[in-house]
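Entry 14. Ran structure prediction on the chain below.
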Amino acid sequence: MKLLLDEMYPPALAEALRADGIDAATVAERGLAGRSDPDVFAAGAADGYVVLTENVADFARIAAERLTAGGHHPGVLMALSSRFSRRPSGIPKILEAIRAAADEQVQDRLVYLQQRSR
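Output, structure tokens:
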């Protein structure tokens, strides 16, 4: 799975994902900082990236519009801010949830990341 991290995520998360063997890039690393959500989604999809975001309203709509128009996309992972912190202390939990989702078929889907029950 190739992941494109939306702007709200720190570079440290991309670094942790790469250290874990996941191909991850930030929007800034891909030259997309400040671009609109449709532009980020389109660029990520064109390069085979699953988008990681917490922006449900925009990305759910954008992904649905792509499918309705007969197109496809690599997928969208939703990490709700109510479940996952973007602070450095939250990186292990989001990394664990992404690992669990990496085995799922996410193409053309919107997948909400889940925290592992303890």
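The beta strands are 2-5, 23-26, 50-53, 76-78, 110-112. Will compare against last week's run tomorrow.
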